[in-house]
Each structure stands twice: as structure tokens, then as C-alpha cells.
């Protein structure tokens, strides 16, 4: 399937037809055939790598979180509720005045970032049964995990600001 797409792109540039005509020609020198085959393979690889890079850079493939609510706990601690697919994530974020602000998140804003679990990795490591009654102390503020499964931290958040 991917080869068909690549060959169509090559046909658009006329390169593919020219190389095929050289390869099919019985008058061409065997060394020229070998060089053409090698060039053809390199060209296919380059176009294939370009397609993979385009796929990786395609933002439609990225997982975005949608901000549902931002709650200011105290002067510097925020809880951001964000959704992805049908899951809600509870994200604790500290506002550091020394750090640059970035883009302010609002209800309905979308962002893509890595969330770091505060409970699941510990529970897995110590083979613990999940307990919704647990809290974490985050910059002097006790944050409970209920009614959510976990509390997350995001290094790219500075309070209500997305810093990238």
C-alpha cells in the first residue's frame, strides 16, 4: 500500500518512469542498471522516511487533553481537570513566579503533554491495592485522589500556564 503511494508520488515527478525505462532497456550497461537500482532504492527510502517524519509530526495523531475546569486552591497551587477521550485527569500544578508564564489555559483549551502519575507507579512497585482515601501533600496543600483514580503532575505547567 505504501509502495503504491510512493510510486504515485514518484510518477508525479517523472523520476519513476525515467528510472523504469532505463532498467527495462536492454542496451543499458549493467553498471548503469546497478547504479539506477541503487538510486531508486535510496529515493524510495528517503521518501519513506519523509512520510514517517510527516506522520510523527502530524498533530492530528497526538493525544490532546481538554481543560474542563481550573481550581485555584491557594495563591500558588492549582488543580486542573482535563479530559481525554472519556477519562478525566486531575492535575496538580504549582505557580512559580520566577518561571516564565507561557500560554494561559482556560476552560476548553487543548494541550498535549506528558502527565506523571503520583500513585499508580508506587502502587505497582509495591503491589498495593488502590486506596481512594490517600492524599498527597503538594507544596503544603493536601490533595485527595477521590473521586479520580490518580493525581498527575505535568512539568510543562506553571500554575494555569502551559510552558513549552
Task: Walk me through this protein's architecture.
There is one protein chain. The chain is an alpha+beta fold and 164 residues long. Helix content is 34%, strand content 27%. It is built from four helices and eleven strands. The strands form three sheets. A six-stranded mixed sheet has the order 5-1-2-3-9-6, with no helix packed on it. It has a three-stranded antiparallel sheet with strand order 4-11-10, with no helix packed on it. Helix 2 packs antiparallel against helix 3. It starts with a helix and ends with a strand.
* β-sheet strand percentage: 25-35%
Q: For the CA atoms, what is the radius of gyration?
A: 26 Å
Task: Determine the number of helices (DSSP H or I, runs of at least 4 residues).
Answer: 4
Low-pLDDT windows of residues: 55-61
* Percentage of residues assigned to helices: 25-40%
How confident overall, as mean pLDDT? 75
Structural class: alpha+beta
Structural shape: elongated
* Number of DSSP-assigned strands: 11
**Main sheet summary:** 6 strands, mixed
N-C termini distance: 37 Å
Order of helices and strands: HHHEEEEEEHEEEEE
Strand order of the largest sheet: 5-1-2-3-9-6
Amino acid at each position: 500500500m505504501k509502495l503504491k503511494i510512493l510510486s504515485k508520488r514518484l510518477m508525479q515527478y517523472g523520476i519513476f518512469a525515467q528510472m523504469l525505462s532505463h532498467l527495462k532497456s536492454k542496451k543499458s550497461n549493467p553498471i548503469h542498471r546497478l547504479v539506477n537500482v541503487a538510486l531508486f532504492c535510496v529515493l524510495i527510502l528517503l521518501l519513506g522516511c519523509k512520510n514517517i517524519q510527516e506522520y510523527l509530526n502530524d498533530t492530528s495523531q497526538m493525544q490532546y487533553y481538554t481543560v474542563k475546569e481550573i481550581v485555584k486552591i491557594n495563591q500558588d497551587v492549582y488543580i486542573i481537570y482535563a479530559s481525554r477521550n472519556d477519562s478525566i485527569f486531575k492535575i496538580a500544578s504549582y505557580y512559580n513566579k520566577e518561571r516564565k508564564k507561557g500560554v494561559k489555559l482556560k476552560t476548553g483549551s487543548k494541550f498535549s503533554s506528558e502527565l506523571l502519575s503520583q500513585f499508580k507507579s508506587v502502587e505497582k512497585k509495591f503491589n498495593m491495592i488502590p486506596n481512594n482515601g490517600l492524599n498527597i501533600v503538594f507544596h503544603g496543600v493536601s490533595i485527595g485522589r477521590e473521586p479520580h483514580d490518580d493525581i498527575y503532575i505535568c512539568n510543562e505547567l506553571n500554575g494555569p500556564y502551559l510552558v513549552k
